[in-house]
Amino acid sequence: MWLQQTTPSERRTLTATFAGYGVDGFDYMIYTFLIPTLLAAWNMSKAEAGYIATGALLTSAVGGWAAGVLADRYGRVRVLQWTVLWFALFTFLSGFTNSFGQLFFTRAMQGFGMGGEWAVGSVLIAETISARHRGKAAGLVQSSWAVGWAASALAFWGMYAVLPPEQAWKVLFWIGILPAVLILYIRRNLGEPEVYLAEQARLRASGQRSNFLRIFHPSLLRTTVLASLLATGMQGAYYSVTTWLPTFLKTERHLSVLGTSTYLLVLIAGSFVGYLTSAWLSDAIGRRRCFILFAAMGAALVLSYTQIPITDSLMLVLGFPLGFFLSGIFSGMGAFLSELFPGDVRGSGQGFSYNFGRAIGTICPALIGQLSATLPLGQTIGWISAICYGLVIVAALALPETQGRELSPSAAPAR
Question: Hey, what domains does the chain have and what are their CATH numbers?
């Protein structure tokens, strides 16, 4: 197995980033399970629920770009610790809110750390793992989102089984503080990647400093724009489905808490397998082919799941392949973005493009909330997701293939 070919230092980095992104997934996805409860408890509209989701994702976009810039300046490991502490704290504080405005604020603040954690962690993995295993390593870390998602589904089921809804949702936010202990592991076990240290030494020797604005230089602008569009399509589709699927299952399919959890666990299981499979494929057939394959299949499945009148049993079966393609498409993204940008702006370029995509993609949950006032929720989810996947295919066709590209401190700008 490829993991046996990694060094102890590489495995420690994998462990830390896997755990960080997993709890990132838990802290974000737990809100999607609580939307029906909050709609009833606070008399919120679906549009307001969508605004909370979109607000967190918009700030995560800003946080991701900022963390990428800071990571180029102050180091990957140090900034990773800051982001973990930030999102854990504001998830915890969300449990003390009692109105739409208060929860909007705490979730928006939580988003800064959530976006920053992915931006820094993915660069850290890309610079630590060798090129032949980079896609698989990035995909393995990406798969931890499904683990965090599954943990949130199980916690949702468990808490609602033993506590009344008006208390359960608060407890689910409060346990979001637990990931803060991960900082201790990071401090004791992780060091900066050699390629990053070499880049810093090169900059000092030349009297230069990293300038994040270089990602908009003509030599990199096309790459920045296309990478941003690729990320926009992926995340627009993903957040359209995952934000509203629990509400769709409850309000249009009329499933219970247990029924909703069961359907979502099948979807999550498919997501986990999809992450790992796509991670292997991105190293085997290339990043671009993998993106296009998963986008085409994802569009077909989400339309089938939401548009066609099918039985609950068939929905349960389709949940596995839907999760497989919905989530698996992200596996090669961290490696791909790191390979597109040169060493002095790798964090800045990756942080900006992925999180620009997140910022634009996050319009989709709010748009679905608005449109569902006049259109069926399932129909709205399906068509918006399909449009987003079309954007992924167009952007992937226009970008260069980077499979097997070695990272170096003096890498030339991607063209």
Answer: 8-398 (1.20.1250.20)
